[in-house]
Design goal:
The protein is an alpha/beta fold. It has eleven helices and 13 strands. It has a single domain, classed as Spore Coat Polysaccharide Biosynthesis Protein SpsA, Chain A, CATH 3.90.550.10. 33% of the residues lie in helices and 22% in strands. The chain binds 1-O-phosphono-alpha-D-glucopyranose.
Length: 299
Amino acid sequence: MTLKTSRIRKAVFPVAGLGTRFLPATKAVPKEMLTVVDRPVIQHVVDEARAAGIEHFVFVTGRGKAVIEDHFDIQYELERTLADRGKTKELEALIADLPVAGQASFTRQQAPLGLGHAVWCARDIIGDEPFALLLPDMLHHGPTPCLKEMIDAHRATGGNLIAVAPVPEDQTHQYGIVGVTDADEKVARVTQMVEKPAKGTAPSNLHITGRYILQPEIFDLLARQEKGAGGEIQLTDSMIRLMTDLDQPFHAVRFDGTIYDCGSKIGFLTANIAYGLERADLAPALKTEIERLMARPRS
Ligand code: G1P
């Protein structure tokens, strides 16, 4: 079977999740709009996609998420005011973040039926070409953007790719876990995939980190709407069929940077400190404040 290794132009961002782990912060504000330093989490992930050469950004949103759409649009009054006040740098930064007109699409997932269902909602916008998928909770931080490493690898492998990284064994039941031909290789062939394996049954400690390159045939499999782990329509189940029933190549790219799970409070707080400490304008004062807090007697 031959598979096209065509260019990855479009990326899907599933942003319909309710964010129950962050209530009450996420009652009226989508969790994707919570900020890591001064950029919303979703902006960081869009930055990664853009740095990887993505040209079209597809957001699968839901009720109460309209502000994400506003975030990626012109804010006319604000731009006017910044221009009037001569705040050229701020204005240029805002404009640089904007997707080009016509290169952002929004579609709604009408019910929270699972990640597989959210991805399926993007089928008409993606059409018949391979695409990237980025889960916005997971911030991937490293010298090279994770998706760029994957797109580079895809030129050689074609087919489907997922980013993986090791997790402590007592956490494997929280993720999709893969088995690979050689866990020490940067790019290895996937031999097994299982969504949220029961404790003690994971094929390895390599988890699916939330970055994917997928072939469009995944949509026909997702259309079956079969429920998996947790009663949800799981993306991993259709990826398994893509690999086994359709015999498509599946590779894992090991991400060697740091991953912050911003869907968890600790991950989110840590990301704020880590990203803050990398900012030349903030690092010295932030470090002093952290040291002061750490030295404070605990009650
Ligand atoms: C999803 C995927 C899982 C992956 C995880 C990464 O799970 O189904 O395979 O490991 O994202 O965050 P969720 O976090 O939606 O339960």
